[in-house]
Design goal:
single chain; alpha+beta; six-stranded antiparallel β-sheet; 19 strands
């Protein structure tokens, strides 16, 4: 859309639809006949509006009626922290069209049912007796002095005196008969190991004095242990910043000082966004953080700044604190949900091989061994700040990418090429077996 133009009969409605379709971020300013209205958007979501004496949805509905004037759109305007609009653009336009149609049709015509329009019907209504259910306001005929004549000429039945119900016991709902639950005493046992003999049946006296046979406790086989770290591994988790693959950029280079960051995260969550939000420093600041989404849930976060690496809730809070200070540039990149789950699992993966010198490793033989072990996770090849990743699923390589080659390609070629660097190091990590739990956005502080 153009950043400025004239307002016509349906221009404001068309602008709202265009802003949503383009997932625009910024402030749309309207002016008509001396009146002004500011509409604030974040990724196409209209979250705040203010005009002369009105704000929120009321201001939007009023502006939709404007048929002349001018509009300007500023994509770099600082977004306000207020949120006064909860309805979607479609709901607002639907309500506005309904109000417009109702106003065009005029006030509703009342049906001609009064006796003044139907003299014959009037006579019938006067002659007909009132319904039998009618009761006088007086409950005692002796109290009706000058009103008795009205009952006599109208055919209205006399009031029925109240019935004395004091001798009727109050209604009581019988309580259901319940049987108290039988408490079973647990027999403390030690879990039997694999291959140990099956415990014998045990008996215990019950209330009747006879013996009750308890079923044997079956041994539970322990789960398979994760791969043991080898080759000098001393950490259960890595501290390298996992690079993000390339995707469709919704926005790039948004200044943190212009952005309502909590509103950004909330909007992406409502849109069931899958991808990541990247926050990186400007100039000499090399700090960077990532917030990873899958289907609207924040499934992981990582951040590195001043030599410190954070993940999870701590990273999410630190990224939010940095943006709140107005530092950094923000990108939002959309990616498939399955790919985001694989990348997020690398951040919390357990290490199987750590810090292997790439120049002494047969990379093809390593991949063959990983395939035999059916490892899900990734192979990371790093040298300084540059990291190449080969994603693994049940031992198979599903693709590779890197800091300098962010496009995801088939096979492990990107990681294999990075191994040619003399100082490159290889880490193999195994992803958690369970799906990652979502992080709570209310805890970002």
């Amino acid at each position: 859309m153009q950043n400025q133009g004239s307002i016509g009969p349906a221009t404001v409605a068309q602008l709202l639809q265009t802003m949503q379709q383009d997932r625009a971020t910024g402030t749309l300013s309207l002016e008509s006949a001396g009146h002004q209205c500011a509409l604030h958007f974040l990724f196409g979501h209209l979250f705040h509006a203010v005009s002369d004496g009105e704000e929120g949805e009321a201001a939007v509905l009023s502006a939709l009626d404007w048929t002349s004037g001018e509009y300007t759109f500023n994509p770099r305007a600082k977004l306000p922290p207020e949120e006064t609009i909860n309805s979607s653009t479609e709901d607002l336009l639907s309500r506005w069209r309904g109000q417009t149609a109702e106003a065009a049709s005029g006030p509703p015509v009342r049906p001609e049912t009064t006796a003044s329009f139907h003299p014959e019907k009037r006579a019938e209504l006067v002659a007909a007796p009132p319904p039998a259910t009618y009761q006088s306001f007086a409950t005692n005929t002796e109290d009706r002095d000058d009103g008795d004549w009205l009952d006599s000429i109208s055919g209205r039945p006399a009031a029925v005196p109240e019935e004395d119900m004091s001798d009727i016991p109050p209604f009581q709902t019988p309580m259901p008969q319940t049987t108290p639950p039988v408490m079973r005493s647990a027999v403390p046992t030690q879990p039997a190991g694999v291959g140990s003999p099956t415990p014998a049946r045990t008996t215990a006296p019950n209330q009747s004095g006879t013996a009750t046979v308890r079923p044997p406790v079956r041994p539970v086989a322990p789960t398979a242990p994760p791969p043991k770290p080898v080759a000098g591994a001393t950490r259960s988790q890595l501290s390298v910043l996992i690079p993000m693959p390339a995707g469709e950029a919704l926005h790039s280079g948004l200044k943190a000082s212009f952005l309502n960051f909590p509103m950004l995260l909330k909007t992406l969550s409502q849109d069931r966004f899958s991808g990541f939000v990247s926050v990186h420093g400007e100039g000499e600041d090399r700090g960077r953080g990532h917030i990873l989404f899958r289907g609207g849930d924040v499934i992981q976060a990582q951040q590195r700044a001043d030599g410190t690496y954070r993940r999870g809730k701590a990273a999410l809070q630190e990224v939010a604190r940095t943006v709140a200070q107005g530092h950094g540039l923000i990108d939002a990149v959309e990616l498939p949900a399955e790919l985001m789950a694989s990348v997020a699992s690398l951040i919390v993966a357990a290490t199987a091989f750590v810090n292997l010198p790439a120049r002494i490793v047969d990379f093809e033989a390593l991949l063959e061994y990983i395939g035999d072990q059916r490892v899900s996770g990734g192979v990371l090849v790093s040298q300084g700040d540059q990291v190449a990743v080969a994603l693994l699923t049940d031992g198979s390589v599903k693709g590779s990418y890197g800091s300098s080659v962010p496009e995801l390609v088939d096979g492990a070629q990107v990681a294999a090429t990075a191994c040619a660097e003399r100082e490159a190091r290889i880490d193999v990590v195994a992803a958690p077996a369970q799906p990652l739990a979502a992080l709570d956005l209310t805890e970002i502080g």
